[in-house]
Amino acid sequence: MREGASEHGAGLTSFRRFTWWTVPGTSVCLLLVFYGEWLLDPEVPARVRVPVAVALVVDAVASAVLLGGRLTPGAAVDGARPVPPPRAWTAVAVAATVVLAVLPLARRDYELWAVAPAVTVAVCAAHLGPRHRRTLIVGAVLLAALPGGAVSLAAGDGRFAHAALFPAGLVAFTVWMVLGPLWAWHIAGRLDRARRLEAESAVKDERLRFAAELHDIQGHHLQVIALKSELAARLVDRDPAGAAAEMREVRQLAADALRDTRAVVRGYRRTTLEDEIANAGKVLAAAGIDTRTAMEPASLAADLTDTGRHLLGLVMREATTNVLRHSRARHAEVDCRAVDGRARLRVTNDGADAPAADPDGTGLTALDERLRAAEGELTWRRDGDRFEVTASLPLAPGDARSEPRPRHPHDRTKGAAR
Length: 418
What we know:
Radius of gyration: 38 Å
Oligomer: single chain
Distance between the termini: 39 Å
Shape: rod-shaped
Number of domains: 2
Number of strands: 5
């Protein structure tokens, strides 16, 4: 995403324009109004007006350029990051500030002389990091009391308090006036960056979800295809008709896999618990695994939300794939029932293989995260050669079936994900 387009969509272009008029515009106006009025005073000698007028124009331009640099997209991302100002413009601004401060102070104008130094301090503070910025501001406020106070004492005009305190207050006020809107601009830049990162994160999450869906579909279908192809290879010599039947099923499975993949790409496919339980019974029976299936009550799946049926269907599919890939099972059980207001799906099998030292399967772990997001729970455990996967999700209010929930010391223990 281009930064300019992002700023336009977030309204930052208008905010930058507003900040530009608020910060550099106000600073320049402050210089022009105060010093312009002083230049129009007929009591000010001409020899003083000319250098002050030249210094005023130079300082106004330099201040606008330096403050404008703090409103660039790169500088707005992080206001705490120091951005060194251009040295040439800084030197010009400081030189003009000296002229604008010394000449009015020589005429004992205790209010005017501190205006240009206050603006310059604010401009320099805008380009510093937090620690150096605080040091500069505190030092400038304290030092601002010295020149006016010294001149007042030397002249003996009795205005020491005003000469010392007014410049210090003016510096503090000007710094607050300049840095406040800049701080707001930097916060807006950070929020815009956070918004863009959130959008990118949402895209990545959706890609991961799609990858998990595709993994579930392709892994399941390919595992069954491999199983039936192996069976057909064993039957081809002694039972050609049976081998041909198995290969026809392989062709149908390949077509189903292609259809399901296309459906996932279009975002339409929704795995359901009933379909996956029925499919698991057929697939496990074809693999020679004695499978017992129980769903109590029979209408349990209808009591679940569409999301719940989809998630439990994914668990059923993953558990079936694990039985085929990671066991030499002869018996399997699928039990789905309502327990304490929750739908519980439990899949168990014998003949489980020993857990791999570096397993590459992440199906159960990924499903665990998805169930937890839906206020559900997924556990799995190994007891000898017996492996058990249990998933639960809340039913809709009023759909709970009263049945005592059996407790097992290993209910919350997770074994190695297969």
